[in-house]
């Protein structure tokens, strides 16, 4: 996402459980590639995620998000390239890296005839950092954290899709993690559940945990993430701090005027690019400034009722980045 010199600004507030140097990225890939026969699922991805960041991994269906995540976690072997997770080479050193990683990938998988609590107890029993009474305490706290206490004794097969997602999230959060990877964590959740996931991500970020979130909900990424990585057709087409990506869209000015058509013609005659959008005039400020725009309209007798600067949203940036890609 950013280079090594920038990782010191990632905001890490707790010592990493893995014991690795905080100056290292949480994860990085080099020329990461995955092919299935003649189909290229992931094409030479160079990803850099600083410690303490919350990274939104964006892309339409088939863009390679889940395949990339599976290679990051050692669940799928790359056809070429390399992966380092918390400073350890994957998959060779997965035994050292993965205890510090919590993940929810392609939906949770649990025993259908066991209760949510029993499923979580089985997961907790396999955590190297938990033993004895710690297991019961960790399970209780995880259930409380995701709001599943009342449904804890129900069989997993009776859970709704949203409840299954919550249980999977609980399993990922049984112990403190250096890195949490969530593949579409709000899938199947109602608005209240989505807000809870947003709250949990904020708590993880505040504690210094690095979070990677794969999502197609651009509004959620814009609300929760500090960084973004955009994939399209298996290629990484943009990555970096979210604020920087949003600023790349360029500032613009939105105006409510007395006559849109006359205002549009006035600005064009003044050499100021503009267009009518949703009943307002929209002016790109890359080659002009707001006072010049307003002055041109007023001088032409066009009433300016409101003028406000506007920054491109993530949806607009995403559409611009992926436009024309296949």
Report on the structure:
- It comes from Actinopolyspora mzabensis.
- Keywords: ATP-binding, Nucleotide-binding, Transport.
- InterPro entries: AAA+_ATPase, ABC_transporter-like_ATP-bd, ABC_transporter-like_CS, P-loop_NTPase.
- Residues 27-258 form the ABC transporter domain.
- Belongs to the ABC transporter superfamily.
- It is a single chain.
- This protein is an alpha/beta fold and 326 residues long.
- It folds into 2 domains: 4-245, 3-Layer(aba) Sandwich (Rossmann fold), CATH 3.40.50; 251-310, Alpha-Beta Plaits, CATH 3.30.70.
- 33% of the residues lie in helices and 25% in strands.
- It has helices spanning 65-72, 94-97, 116-125, 133-146, 161-172, 191-206, 218-224, 242-247, 260-269, 290-299, 314-322; strands at 27-36, 39-45, 48-49, 54-58, 80-85, 88-90, 101-104, 179-183, 210-215, 227-232, 235-241, 252-257, 274-277, 280-284, 304-310.
- The strands form 3 sheets. A 6-stranded mixed beta sheet has the order 7-8-9-4-10-11, sandwiched between helices. Strands 1, 2, 3, 5 and 6 form a 5-stranded antiparallel beta sheet that branches.
- α4 crosses α5.
- The longest helix is centred in the middle third of the chain and has 16 residues, at 191-206.
- The protein is elongated, with a radius of gyration of 24 Å.
Spell the H/E element sequence: EEEEHEEHEHHHEHEHEEHEHEEHEH
Helix content: 25-40%
Provide the gyration radius in Å. Answer: 24 Å
**CATH superfamily grouping of the largest domain:** P-loop containing nucleotide triphosphate hydrolases
The first-level CATH class of the largest domain is given as: Alpha Beta
What's the domain count? 2
Report the biggest beta sheet as strand number plus sense, adding barrel if it closes. Answer: 6 strands, mixed
Shape: elongated
Counting DSSP H or I runs of 4 or more residues, the number of helices is 11
Which CATH architecture of the largest domain is right?
A: 3-Layer(aba) Sandwich
Taking all residues together, what is the mean pLDDT? 85
Name the strands of the widest sheet in spatial order. 7-8-9-4-10-11
Query: What is the strand content?
Result: 25-35%
And the CATH topology of the largest domain? Answer: Rossmann fold
Question: First CA to last CA: what distance?
Answer: 23 Å
Q: Uncertain segments of ≥5 residues (pLDDT<50)?
A: 1-21
Structural class: alpha/beta
Total beta strands: 15
Family: Belongs to the ABC transporter superfamily.
GO molecular function, one term: ATP binding
Organism: Actinopolyspora mzabensis
Pfam family, one: ABC_tran
């Amino acid at each position: 996402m950013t280079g090594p010199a920038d990782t010191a600004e990632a905001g890490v507030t707790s010592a990493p459980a893995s014991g690795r140097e905080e100056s290292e990225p949480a994860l990085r890939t080099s020329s990461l590639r995955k092919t299935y026969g003649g189909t290229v699922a992931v094409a030479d991805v160079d990803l850099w995620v600083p410690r303490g960041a919350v990274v939104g991994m964006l892309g339409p269906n088939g863009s390679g998000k889940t395949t990339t995540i599976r290679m990051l976690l050692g669940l799928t072997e790359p056809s070429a390239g390399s992966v380092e997770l918390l400073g350890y080479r994957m998959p060779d050193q997965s035994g050292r890296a993965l205890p510090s990683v919590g993940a929810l990938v392609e939906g949770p998988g649990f025993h259908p005839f066991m209760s949510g609590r029993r499923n979580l107890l089985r997961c907790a029993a396999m955590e190297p950092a938990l033993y004895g009474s710690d297991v019961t305490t960790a399970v209780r706290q995880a259930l409380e954290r995701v709001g599943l206490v009342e449904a804890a004794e129900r069989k997993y097969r009776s859970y709704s899709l949203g409840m299954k997602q919550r249980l999977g999230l609980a399993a990922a959060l049984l112990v403190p993690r250096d890195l949490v990877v969530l593949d579409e964590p709000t899938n199947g959740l109602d608005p209240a559940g989505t807000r809870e996931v947003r709250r949990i991500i904020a708590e993880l970020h505040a504690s210094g945990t690095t979070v990677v979130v794969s999502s197609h909900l651009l509004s959620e990424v814009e609300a929760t993430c500090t960084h973004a990585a955009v994939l399209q057709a298996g290629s990484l087409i943009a990555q970096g701090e979210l604020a920087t990506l949003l600023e790349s869209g360029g500032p613009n000015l939105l105006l409510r005027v007395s006559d849109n058509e006359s205002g549009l013609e006035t600005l064009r005659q003044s050499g100021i690019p503009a267009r009518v959008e949703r009943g307002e005039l929209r002016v790109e400020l890359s080659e002009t400034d707001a006072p010049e725009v307003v002055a041109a309209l007023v001088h032409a007798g066009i009433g300016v009722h409101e003028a406000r600067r506007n920054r491109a949203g993530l949806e607009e940036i995403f559409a611009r980045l992926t436009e024309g890609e296949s």
